[in-house]
Amino acid sequence: MASGDWNPQLIEQVVREVLASLQQRIGAERGPNEQPSAAPSEGPAKGRGPQQRAEPQPSPTRREDTGQSETSRPLARFVSTRDGELVLSDRVITLAQVSDRLEGIRRVVVPMGAVVTPAVRDLLQEKGIPVFYGGAQKSVEISAVSPARAAAVTVLLVTQKINPQQLDNLLRSEGITADYETLDCLIRASERAGELCRKQRLVVVITRHVAAEVCLANRQRGVRAIAGRNPQEVAGDTAAVGANVLVADLNAGLFSLKRMIRQFVASSHVCPEVFREKLELQ
User: Fold this and answer.
1) By three-state DSSP, how is residue 78 classified?
2) Which of 62-71, 106-115, 192-201, 258-267 has the lowest mean pLDDT?
3) What average pLDDT does range 167-175 have in this prediction?
4) Quick check: pTM over 0.85?
């Protein structure tokens, strides 16, 4: 509207409403022992023009993804970022904790057994930043899935309830290609796992008898088998012993199986030095 059409009463009403809103916000933020500031005048201010309008104070910047202010956003506890290394001490690493800390970082180190969410793994894979488990000095790498490593995976199905083609379609979407064998005996599956491990292949055994198969597989020379029931635990468990066999729970469902296999394939399969004498030479 033209300047000649300004309505002083309307402008004054807007100013009073803004001041009243600010006063309510300030009152809500004050503690019980603090005295509120003087309330705005209810009557029209004398001689106040548009140029004297009170400007509202900006609210804290909010992140679009979480709706939290920058000052209240939970941050991951970290030890250091020196020499391009981000060392975190949290047990669960989420995207919000690392997304703004990766500039100049060449690797991320997390505690042994920590849970790194899939979103964080995708971001680090995109930036080419490896994840290491176990601390800054003695750590094992959790790298991204590579076609070379994925090609050396054999899935042993000790069940008739899973169609290999369905599982293969899901794994290929993750960049994993695998061979498939169907067996009807846990003992035979454990023996076959041992044969494949001695040929430097990774093995996934899918069965509903997880505990029994883990025990049987670990009786085979060169096998370091772990149980897979929860996708969030597979990466840490694999790195902890350098597992080369994952015994995955059939009852977890296809999508959880896909996530467990992905975490297993992408993890370090190097046996930690402290366990090497016992676990590699059995």
Assistant:
1) strand
2) 62-71
3) 87
4) no
Yes or no: say if 116 and 123 are a contact pair by the CB < 8 Å rule. no
Beta strands across the sheet bearing 85-88: 78-80, 85-88, 107-110, 131-133, 140-142
**Of residues 86, 106, 111, the one with CA closest to residue 97:** 86
Tokens of 268: 């370090």
Which amino acid, one-letter code, is at 169? Answer: N
User: What is the tens place of the pLDDT at every residue in 66-79?
Assistant: 444 444 444 445 44
Q: Tell me, what DSSP letter sits at residue 82?
A: G
Q: What is the pLDDT of residue 16?
A: 75
Question: Is pLDDT at 154 greater than 80 in this prediction?
Answer: yes
DSSP H helices in 39-161 = 95-98, 118-127, 147-150
Rounded-to-integer distance, Cα 216 and Cα 156, Å: 14
250: helix, coil or strand?
A: helix
d(CA 202, CA 272): 17
Which own/partner contact pairs does 88-97 have at CB distance under 8 Å and 24+ positions apart?
88/114, 90/114, 91/115, 92/117, 93/117, 93/120, 94/119, 94/120, 95/119, 95/120, 95/123, 96/63, 96/65, 96/66
Contact 183, 217 (CB under 8 A): no
- Give the separation between CA 275 and CA 242, rounded to whole angstroms: 9
Round to whole Å and give the CA distance between 77 and 128. Answer: 22
Residue 67 near residue 60 (C-beta atoms within 8 A): no
Q: Is residue 123 exposed (0-12), middle (13-18) or buried (19+ Cβ within 10 Å)?
A: middle
Q: Using alpha carbons, select from 207, 194, 279 the residue that is nearest to residue 245.
A: 194
Q: Who has greater pLDDT, 86 or 243? A: 243
Q: What's the mean pLDDT when you consider all of the chain?
A: 75
